[in-house]
Amino acid sequence: MSSITIIGTGNMARAIGTRAVAGGDSVEIMGRDRSRVEGLAQALGGGATAGTWGAVPAGDIVVMALLHDGVVPVVAEYGDALTGKVIVDISNPFNATFDGLAHGDGTSVAQEAAKVAPSGASVVKAFNTIFRHVLESGRPTVFIAGDDARAKAEVAEFITGMGLRSLDVGGVTMAHWLEGMGLVTVGLAGNGIGHGNFALGVAELAG
Amino acid sequence: MSSITIIGTGNMARAIGTRAVAGGDSVEIMGRDRSRVEGLAQALGGGATAGTWGAVPAGDIVVMALLHDGVVPVVAEYGDALTGKVIVDISNPFNATFDGLAHGDGTSVAQEAAKVAPSGASVVKAFNTIFRHVLESGRPTVFIAGDDARAKAEVAEFITGMGLRSLDVGGVTMAHWLEGMGLVTVGLAGNGIGHGNFALGVAELAG
């Protein structure tokens, strides 16, 4: 059982919140629009609560379910309220043509968020390779990246509790390449697969 | 049935050559070291032939089974001998710490090879997300990227003929992100999976 705060009230907030409540997690929703926050908390059920924007999150894990260009500003705005928290960045910072990232080489939203996060907070990249509807109806693999082993273990427990497989790809510098796998996922849907009912995963050999 | 020339005599040349011969393809091996070329052609069997370094390849598809920093120089050295060929780049241009690429943003070995290839040649990125021993003993998914639909169709037919699944992720700019998936594969082996008996693939939902 994990204790989660989701910042955001959009489709990914709803999808992650739904899975978290089903997994028995304690869930808090935060957002700028109070009526949307209360509406989502009520829709999730399972004791999900409506938090106050900018306050210290109730959850040990804080999922930033925001558009990619909102993540860093919101981490900065929350500031010390995130001290000691595990911040989860799920964003896909795509460029306009969906074949590159909105930022350059050697960084990622996760790494930029870590730069403005308070001391004692850790950032983990996760969930960004998964289409929202696949998270709702499938059992996709969740790839994670981050520098803090304890934070990754907490996120892995959260993911496992949702009935999903968590796979650690390495340190936070790998978040850039997970963002690239987000691009590959979109590329596959437009070229190699022709629909969006899939997720990248891993096939293991016996033996 | 495809007609393939493999430039290189190392482990990946052997693995791809073995699968190609098993799939009934016509296979030619080329390399600087004549004795190694003849040794590999003989080991592959199935009528595999030993070609002459720098000559026009017999295969319609030319697989560059070389270390990453050898691909562009060899494409340049072959020059007009590659006119009309489909050049397959399988390389992983990793940096020394295996968390980034040896080249910068917005390019890939495939794109650099395309710059020096003769007119009428096309470059396709493929196979780079697969460990050699998985290619030998498993049925991994092969992700491909390239700008030329006809060339990709030929490579897809080659891959399918080997009994493997080919998935198109988009244009050649996506080769950079397939190289990133090579990094993720190594990262998974070192962190999330703990062994190398796997390959990245795709899980599809029913319906």
From TrEMBL, chains A, B:
Record keywords, A-Z: Oxidoreductase
Pyrroline-5-carboxylate reductase catalytic N-terminal domain ranges (all copies): 4-93
Database matches in Gene3D superfamilies: NAD(P)-binding Rossmann-like Domain
Keyword RNA-binding: no
GO molecular function list: oxidoreductase activity
Alphabetized Pfam families for the sequence: F420_oxidored
Protein name: Pyrroline-5-carboxylate reductase catalytic N-terminal domain-containing protein
